[in-house]
Design goal:
The protein is of the alpha+beta class. Helices cover 44% and strands 20% of the residues. The two termini are 20 Å apart.
Length: 422
């Protein structure tokens, strides 16, 4: 599936408190962490790839630090390097994120100036844009040779045939990228900076007073307006089919997926999170032990669940020898056969899965980067700030019967199936 990171910050006794407030139509999240003398700052705009023509959002974000109205690329980089700072841009289907990591003793004014030079005054010089375009084209060429990326692209086009922006690669395509110019980047960048519901995330070794000053300086530079970029509405209906793609390779990559009509704020979603862990979320999972260890049909296999808008997608993917397609399909069909439920949901497997999922959710509370990413997931899905705590509390309440009922709903004929290298 599209890259999606489930890293959630929990308000446990071991986790630092998340403080939030709003300034100039911008949400601010602050977590103080004194473990290392660094600060991570991210600005997230709801302006990712599903809001623009293919490749435009990513091309724009990756080009912002190539020179400003007053400084060339080398001068922008020098302003960052001289105080040990590093800035990057990240784009997924929902968000455009600018992330700065810096030492905690860097003055607030310098931090604000770094964002101002690299992001808010981006000039998109033509020569640098040409180099950036070539770098992205190289990434596109690499994607086109990877069975995982081939399968994802085909799958999403069939999952959401009426949403071409959403199903496009974040990098876009060769032809669309060739037709994007500096003026297009400048125009889209202006739209990005004006998006409402912008979020600023500050995590690290600094005071709340400093965090508020940084947030104020950044919030008033983004100029949010009431005009939102429009995104495509995704179809929740399932119209499954099987697709075979046969490039020259010695193994088969398979990817199965189905839509589940459950919102990420429902208790049932947490049940499916746990079911996913039972199916293929760890080395003790049913699919791993059956298809890999017992039957020896796959080199690897795992499952994944992700929230999209007000529903979820459950997927199963892996690699096997060629000519195993029929056997793999049969065993996966048996997984969702009511006669196999007791085997899939063995009490020991559920116990291990529950502990495994809880550990995953609580694993990354100790460093700045993971806390930034966990808050970004809250921002991405418009969750309440206490969503993380709700998840862990709800997980504790999930029973074997809940998982049993969730598995009964799923049937093998609900899955889209993509095979690459049959």
């Amino acid at each position: 599936m599209k890259k999606f990171i489930i890293l959630l910050l929990f308000s446990t006794p071991f986790a630092a408190e998340t403080i939030s407030w709003e300034i100039n139509q911008t949400k601010v999240f602050f977590v103080q962490n004194k473990e290392i003398p660094m600060i991570d700052i991210a600005i997230a705009f709801h302006a990712g790839s599903r809001y623009a023509k293919p490749g435009l959002a990513n091309f724009t974000a990756q080009s912002t630090m190539l020179g400003s109205k007053f400084l060339n690329k080398e001068q922008v980089n020098a302003k960052l390097s001289i105080v040990g700072s590093e800035m990057n841009a990240f784009v997924d289907e929902e968000l455009v994120i600018y992330h700065l990591r810096t030492l905690s003793d860097v003055p607030v004014k310098t931090i604000s100036d770094q964002f101002h030079s690299a992001i808010f005054n981006a000039a998109f010089p033509s020569q640098e844009i040409r180099y950036q375009r070539q770098a992205i084209l190289s990434n596109i060429a690499f994607e086109q040779d990877q069975p995982e990326e081939i399968a994802k692209g085909v799958l999403f086009k069939n999952l959401f045939p009426s949403a071409p922006k959403y199903v496009s690669s974040t990098n876009g395509y060769t032809d669309t990228l060739e037709n994007i110019h500096s003026s297009d980047l400048q125009q889209y960048h202006a739209k990005v900076l004006s998006q409402p519901d912008t979020s600023i995330i500050i995590v690290g070794d600094t005071t709340e007073e400093n965090a508020r000053q940084i947030a104020e300086n950044l919030a008033y530079k983004s100029h949010p307006s009431a005009k939102r970029l429009e995104k495509e509405v995704l179809n929740k209906n399932n119209e499954p089919q099987s697709i075979s793609i046969k490039p020259e390779q010695k193994q088969t990559y398979f990817l199965f997926a189905t839509k589940i009509p459950v919102a990420s704020t429902d208790k049932t979603f947490v049940t499916y999170l746990l079911l996913n862990e039972v199916l293929g979320g760890n080395s003790s999972s049913y699919l791993f032990q059956t298809l890999r260890d017992k039957e020896g049909l796959v080199y690897e296999i795992h499952s994944n669940i992700e929230a999209i808008d007000d529903f979820a997608i459950l997927s199963i993917s892996g690699q096997s020898k060629t000519n195993n397609t029929k056997n793999i399909t049969t065993l996966l069909e048996n997984t969702f056969n009511n006669q196999q439920i007791d085997t899939v949901l063995a009490p020991k497997r559920i116990k291990i899965a529950k502990e495994s999922l809880k550990n995953k959710l609580l694993l990354n509370v100790g460093n700045n980067q993971s806390k930034v990413m966990s808050i970004l997931q809250t921002v991405k899905h418009n969750h309440e700030i206490n969503y993380d705590q709700w998840l862990i509390e709800t997980l504790d309440k999930i029973t074997s019967n809940d998982i049993y009922e969730a598995l009964k709903v799923l049937h093998s004929n609900q899955f889209y199936k993509v095979y690459v290298g049959c």
